[in-house]
Model the fold of this input.
Amino acid sequence: MNIDLLGIILLIGSFQGFFLSFLILHKGRTLFANRFLAALLFAFGLTLLSLWLSDEGFYISNPKLMFTLEGIQLIIFPLYFLYAKYLEELSNKFSKMDLFHFVPFIVYKIFLIPFYFLNQEIISAFQNSYMFENYPIQYIVFNWIIIFQGLIYMILVLKITKIYEKHIKEFYSSISQIKLDWLKNATYLAIIITIGFMTENILQLAGITFSEQFGFSSLLAAIYIYTIGYMGLSRSGVFTELTQIESINSEKIIDQKNNDRYEKSGLSIEKAEAYSKKLKQLMEMEKPYKNCKLTLRDIASMLNISAHNLSEIINTKEEKNFFDFVNQYRIEEVKNDLLNPHNNNLTILAIAMEAGFNSKTSFNTLFKKYVGLTPSKYRESMKSD
Done:
């Protein structure tokens, strides 16, 4: 059998999807969201396998196999969305409402049931209609449903990553390890794949054969499988640890004005003022911010108040989220240490790590944000003064 370059790409991408799917279920099964990631990669593998089987002519003699694999694309983007959703919520319980995301797939599979009972002549005529110069209307409609479905779900995933970043800043003082930038970048790649698929559809409808079996978007899909599979697997340990500590979703801060957000908190003005003073004393005297893994709940436990009330105090009295509140103390600690002659033999990074930072990139970004200078330029300017 003569397998061309596209066929090799499709076949390797397919088995890579299957391999990563089983690997994730084996090594990352403790993270609930990974179940959707594994299903996503398996569906991707089936889609690429279906394209390869079609390219090699297997469907001509095995039409029922074609109908069995047809429509798998309709669950890819819902699975990707659900993976992002349960990763953001750190939830371990599936919501029955999420089954509605699979309604288009179920409807389409019901639509295909009669095709299993057609005779070979009718099936052959149906298969021949898939030639580029004579597309059946259902083929065109199906592809455009996939395109619009993909773009809608990718926008929703980008929205999830944006909301997630807001939420973690309310609870964690260091977020470099738990940010979803990798998922955001993978989503941009998915959008590029979808646009590539859309472009190939438009060209084919115009009579221009850019590539057979959507070669360009298939190549990008194979790359995407590697990206989302390995990135998801490498981050599983971090998010599994978070689920064991606390659930972000359990105390999400509603995105409203501060006054509305804490309207029913039960915390009086007098108590808020008293706790605010205790909080500042704690930060200045005991310096808990030096713990790079410091969380809102850690501080709440030290003050013997609820995490919700502590969040209210920081948000209303300091007008900051927890992340900014803690890291400003760290920045001040670094600034003081940089001025200390006894620290001249220490690198800026060593001083930053001592103050509670756990990422060079995060430290440099925050220092520039709060001080207006890079750490090295600040140190030089203080020496010259």
Q: What stands out?
A: The two ends are 77 Å apart (CA to CA). The chain is about 70% helix and 0% strand.
